């Protein structure tokens, strides 16, 4: 949130200063970028990118496995008291780099697609030409599949631990993501575009909630939510009143957790994504608003707007600005008003 001392940040605020009691596996330099195995040193650099200084697993300790291990140990340590565990994997951030056995498994299931890069640092370091190990395969990427399986193993470990300790009925599990997949290594079809974009492929992410006896199992809810809703939701689930000094951007989604047919008392969702220059993955400086099934995207560099009806066009292929100019104007005004109200730059 504040940058890193190793990159020249004058102030660096660690998770423990944000309110966390323990900082188990955390970056101190940058996101993994291929340094997925202990000691998490990228190429010829001299320092680890993470605060992990000792191995705790046998063999070539893999970062996802280590984080899963620490998560289970955390639950075991705190099983007698209320706890909040935030497990935020560095996988599947590029450079994709899975465990060899799993990579071989998925490579055997389906030939990897064409690579989106002619050069791969990890392949070079292994004495291979180009992207011979398929780290940048655009489809059927074996490293992506392998990393996802390792994450899934951890979800299973956590569920099994909660069951074993008889904590499952009183524990809420939330599984979600922060952005859509990177189109260099996957496809978000039928959604348009991916990470860095305000099209649905960039901002629509998985959300799975498990809370026995409260959330009906095997149900699907179609009400849109946002990750800013988690804080007020967890407060409501625990019967804790929010601090009146804090401004809450989100709302509690507890009503739809109890009943997937319920509706939330919210008029619109907003996104704000200002960039000095286009993102290297293709995203542009822009903002967006969604009201019901209508979604408007405004490009900050050109002022152009795009309007889509997600119920009829979830792939955002048909811009309806000309067909519905009043709807577009109204949403653009609401988006501008919201930016002014919250004081964004």
Helix and strand element order: HHHHEHEHHEEEEH
**Strand arrangement in the largest pleated sheet:** 3-4-5-6
Largest sheet: 4 strands, antiparallel
Report the end-to-end length measured between terminal Cα atoms: 17 Å
| Secondary-structure class | alpha+beta
**How would you state the average pLDDT, rounded?**
95
> What is the CATH C level class, in words?
Alpha Beta
Count of structural domains: 1
State Rg: 22 Å
Give the CATH architecture: 3-Layer(aba) Sandwich
Helix content: 25-40%
β-strand percent reads: 5-15%
The CATH topology turns out to be Alkaline Phosphatase, subunit A
Total strands: the figure is 6
Would you summarize the structure shown here?
By secondary structure, this protein is an alpha+beta fold. The protein has eight helices and six strands; from the N terminus they run ααααβαβααββββα.
Secondary-structure blueprint of this entry?
Elements: H1 63-77, H2 100-109, H3 121-125, H4 142-164, E1 173-176, H5 200-203, E2 207-210, H6 230-237, H7 254-258, E3 269-273, E4 286-291, E5 294-299, E6 305-309, H8 325-342
Antiparallel strand pairs: 1-2, 3-4, 4-5, 5-6
Helix pairs in contact: 1-4, 2-4
Describe this structure in words.
By secondary structure, the chain is of the alpha+beta class. It has a single domain (5-267), classed as Alkaline Phosphatase, subunit A (3-Layer(aba) Sandwich), CATH 3.40.720. It contains 8 helices and 6 strands. The chain has helices spanning 63-77, 100-109, 121-125, 142-164, 200-203, 230-237, 254-258, 325-342; strands at residues 173-176, 207-210, 269-273, 286-291, 294-299, 305-309. The strands form 2 sheets. It has a 4-stranded antiparallel sheet, covered by helices on one side. α2 crosses α4. It starts with 62 loop residues before the first helix and ends with a helix.
